[in-house]
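Notes from the 1:1 (GR / supervisor)

We went over the backlog. Supervisor wanted to see one worked example end to end before approving the batch request, so GR pasted a single chain during the call. The sequence is below; no edits were made to it. Supervisor asked that the structure be written out right there so they could see what the output format looks like.
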Amino acid sequence: MNYGKALTLADSIWRIIISILKFILKIIVWIFHYSGLALIWSKFKPSKQGVLPGGPLWFIGIYLALFGIADQRYQNRANVIEDRANALVFSQLANPETKRQALQAIPEIQHMSCPSKPKLWPLWSSVKSFYSQDYYWEMRQNLKDIVVCLKNTLVIKYPGINLRNIDLLAADLSDAKLAGAFLAGADLRWTNLNNANLMGADLMEADFMGANLAFVDLKGAKLIDAKLIKAFLVFADLNNTELMSADLRGANLHKADLIEARLAEANMTKANLWLTDLSGASLFLANLTGANLSSANLTGANLVMADLTDADLNSAKLTGANLIKADMTEALMNFADLTGADLTDANLTNASLSCTDLTEADLWGANLSGASNLTKEQLLKVKSLYMIEGLEEELRKQLEQEALHLFIHPDS
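Structure output shown during the call:
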């Protein structure tokens, strides 16, 4: 009895499923016929024998029409940008009274959006133009050229001119006289600023990725939150420059002058600072992971809580440097001068300290686990070994026998 009911129920369910599938099929057929898909299919596969398919030509015609519409949209927007550029910039440049205002209008026009420029090939560029926004690159370049032509007189004639967010991508600004310029947020990627004068300039949040800044004068400039990824700053003058939170990953700062520069929380991962002068610089919480600081001058520098993991500090001068809670895990510090440096709670795990001068260095609470090439003679010259961690047992015993006072609280 129960078996028969189960078969009847299964049969009913099956009939319902079949009915639903037939209904769905009818809807698909209806859509196929009345949406125009049937007509399109007939263009590629004619129902009559001997009739050549016109689908390819039909498709080409549709695409050309689509390209024409996209190109017209692009041209209309380009005309709007050109009209605005003519009204605010080009027509005003000849008048000395309006020239400053005209130049300050350049960044706004450069950033006016425009549909991406359609091309006949690749095919998807025309479709992309309907939903993708870009810039009118020809106008951006024309406006950029104006600034390049005025690179030696712009700031002198118009002090305090505001060129915030201007596009100077890959421009040639070598030897430019832009001291005190307001270029915050400027796009200076791959720009040639060799030997340029940017002393005291406001360059906050500017992007210098890959830029050539060799011999540039940036004394007292503001580069807070600036991007200097892989920038070439060889022999650059960054004396007393504000570089807080700047991104200097992979930057080449060989022999640059960073005396008293403010680099708190800057990212200098794998930067080249060989022979760089960082005396008196503030590097609080800076990231110097893997940086090359060999033979660098860090006299009196503030490196509190700085990350110097795997950094090369061979022959570096760190006299009187503040390295409280600095992380120097696996750092190379051979022949470095740490005379009078404060290494309180510093992490020197697996650091290499061959011939490192630790005279009067404070190692209170420092971690020397796995530190290599460290001798008794070096540690006998330190100021304090109170609460030292990771010191080899044999070395500790020798030091306690000869200088027990080093392990006792300094105030005791």
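Supervisor's comment: The longest strand covers residues 113-115.
Batch request approved.
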